[in-house]
Structure formats: C-alpha cells, structure tokens
Amino acid sequence: MTIRALLIDDERLARVELRKLLTDFPSIEVVEEAANVAEALDKIDQLKPDLIFLDIQMPGKTGFDLLAELDRSPQVIFTTAHHEYALKAFEVNALDYLMKPIDPVRLADAIQKVQQLEAARIGNGEGEVLPNGVLSENDQVFVKDGDRCWFVKLNEIRFFESVGNYARVFFGNNKPMILKSLNALEDRLDSKLFFRTNRKHIVNLRMIEKIEPYFNGGLLLELKGGDKIEVSRRQTLRFKEMMSL
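The structure corresponding to this sequence follows.
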C-alpha cells in the first residue's frame, strides 16, 4: 500500500527535513512540495494526494484557509511551530498535529494512523469510481463557518437546506452555512445517496427513518435526529421509482 503525500510549508528547510524523515517510511511516497496555499491548491488538484503535511502559518493564507477552499480533502497532518492551533486542528478532525522540530517517534505514530485509515478504506471497498467531479459517500469535505471548521464525511450529513446563495449543512448537532447553492451541490453529490426532495432541500437517503403520505400527493420524510422534510408532488414520483415504493 503506497500513500501519496504532498508537503506544504513556506520554509524550504522544513520541507527538506520532513522529506528526509519520511524516507524511513517506505509506504509514504512524497509526490511534490508546495510553499504556499495557491501552489498547494494547484498541486492537490493535479496530483490528488492521499495525505498532506500542512503548515498553518504561511504568508498570505493559512493552512486552514487552504482546507476551506478544497471541495474534498486528503487526510491532513498539521506541522507547525505554533501550539495554540492544536485545539482548532483537532476540531477539524486532522489526523495529527506535529510540533516543529518534528519528533521522529511522533511522526511514526501519525504515519501509523494514516496506514490504518487507508487499510480500512481499502478493506471497506471505498475505491468506488464515480463520474468526474462527483463526490462519493466516503469523501471527506471541509466545512468552514466563521471561526469554526469541521472535516465531515458525506455519509454523516443528514441534509442540505437552501438559504439564498448559501446552503446550511446538517450533521450531528451542527448546521453551518457554506457558500454553495443547492443546484451546485446537487451536481457534485452522488445521486444514489442524495436526493433533491424539493426546491429547498437535498436529503441523505440513508438517514430516512419514516415515510408518510403528505399534502397534494407529496410525501413527508422523517430523518434520524427527528428532522422532517417534504418531498414535493413533482419529486414524489421520482422518489418512489428510486426507492421502489
């Protein structure tokens, strides 16, 4: 199992040192390096690495800014000289947070986490090929709302709700807003998992617990967590065909 990694740090010597440390881990293939957010975005788009080693404080934009601009995120290990970002890093579900200078033992622990996750992903058959640009249920997306940010697997999202040019994302006890229209989201989501129930909502089909008849020939869906979403009359026929009702 080879894990393709991108090193992102504005300090060349830090990248050199990390690349040297990673030679002790044959499963990690360093595919490229980037010195700033703009360069990193280009290389992530081109190379689609499995893992990024990400500095936080860089000129212009931070590592958190980078994550906010990605449609889907690789696994992330933060590498930084600033301990004050540790809580925020774990709030976004980063795999690890390594302080510079990097301790080889801590690095080995972080690599082991990556290997375990990749082995589990392959074992669960998460390598499904979808049309270009479509996100699978196991893709992890980065959601940022003000100062708060999260990594979320798409299969953990109950539904999306349109709020003008924004969309509210419902997962766990959270409902942050993202700058994406429902139409744009619908184009990126796997239609086997997410369904456009009406003008305002896209629901995760696996989150449905109860289906009831509703006004004007529509349906009412009750989701895990108790949310109730209407399926418009127009969409009800498509929904029944899809769910074989």
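Confidence is low (pLDDT under 50) at residues 124-131.
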